[in-house]
Amino acid sequence: MSSTDVQNVQNEELEKYELMVILMANLSQDDTEKELIKIKKLINDATGEIYHEDVWDVRDLAYMINKQDKGYYVIYYFTLSESKHLVEMERELTINNTVIRHLLVKSPRNYKMKKLADLEFSTGDRRTHRVDKDAPPEVKGVKPVSSAPRPRAERAPAHVPAHTPAVHAAPAPAKVATTAPAAPKEIKKTMDISDLDSQLESLLDDPDINIKL
Amino acid sequence: MARNKYSKQCEFCDSDAQYVDYKNVKAIMPFTTKYAKIVPKYYSGLCLRHQKMIARAIKRARFMALIPFVK
Fold it and tell me: What is the ipTM of this complex?
């Protein structure tokens, strides 16, 4: 396994493929490992070289398949030198009873592989856009009163202190009197805000998980 | 997925997407209705090329039970 050679070959000629396989979830560890070895052999027999392997582990299926509601997901990324053997590989997979589903896809040339962790935890671009879009409408509500864009900038800070008065307003009078008592107050209030943020995030994360499954 | 009707370009064109991955469920889900159907082009606001990519990705994800056919 000279990895540099493999990479060079990838870049030059060979087509990249990816094979996603769903195995029965109720197999024992040894059995699943045996099956995985079998599948790897199939790929290698079809003149494929696996350059990455992503194990998603047991997941809920979106619908029942063969009276199963869970499946063991694995994805193999490999390069092929001859594509004619793929037919036989797919045939073997369809015959295999422990394989619930399989999907063979040719990856595009400049495909950037994403691991499960990246897919799950990186919010899609659309999501972040949406959050941004949600925020502006509140400002838009303020807009009609003053059509010019500059007042918006002045108003925005005026709103901000309402949420965090301690950070801006409190220090000034506190410093005049005594600096010591002012500091703990600030810390407490900022701590509360950060706690609230973390709580909100945890709340926001839950529905996402439900939607996905 | 009603889209701002004043925005002309599709959002995948903005990011110059060459491929939509069927494994990226989070990216796909916004283009399905609450009954898990594919959102039509005139609602999604995508160009034909990217609408086809999304549709293909959704169909693949459905087959692999990542997202449901029907909710």
Answer: 0.82
What count of other Cβ atoms lies within 10 Å of the Cβ of residue A131? Answer: 10
The two tokens of residue A43 are 């790929």
Out of A101, A111, A126, closest to residue B63 by CB: A101
Q: Pull the structure tokens for residue B57.
A: 């990705």
Residue A61 contacts by C-beta under 8 Å, 6 or more apart in sequence? A22, A68, A69, A70, A71, B65
The DSSP annotation for A182-209 comes to: HHHHHHHHHHHHHHHHHHHHHHHHHHHH
Alpha carbon A78 to its chain centroid, in Å, reads 22
pTM above 0.90, yes or no: no
User: Are B68 and A65 in contact (CB < 8 Å)?
Assistant: no
Of A11, A1, A96, nearest to A49 by C-alpha is: A1
Determine whether the interchain pair A65/B67 forms a contact, defined as Cβ–Cβ distance below 8 Å. Answer: no
Residue A30 gets the label, from left (phi > 0), alpha (psi -120 to 50) or beta, of alpha
Mutation target among B20, B66, B67, B71 for the A interface, most CBs of A within 10 A: B66
Cβ distance of B64 and A108 shorter than 8 Å: no
- Residues A140-176 have pLDDT tens digits of 444 444 444 454 444 544 454 445 444 454 444 444 4
Cα A166 to chain centroid, rounded = 36
Gap between the Cα atoms of A184 and A88, Å rounded: 71
Q: pLDDT (tens digit, 9 = 90+) per residue, B14-37? A: 888 889 999 988 889 999 999 999
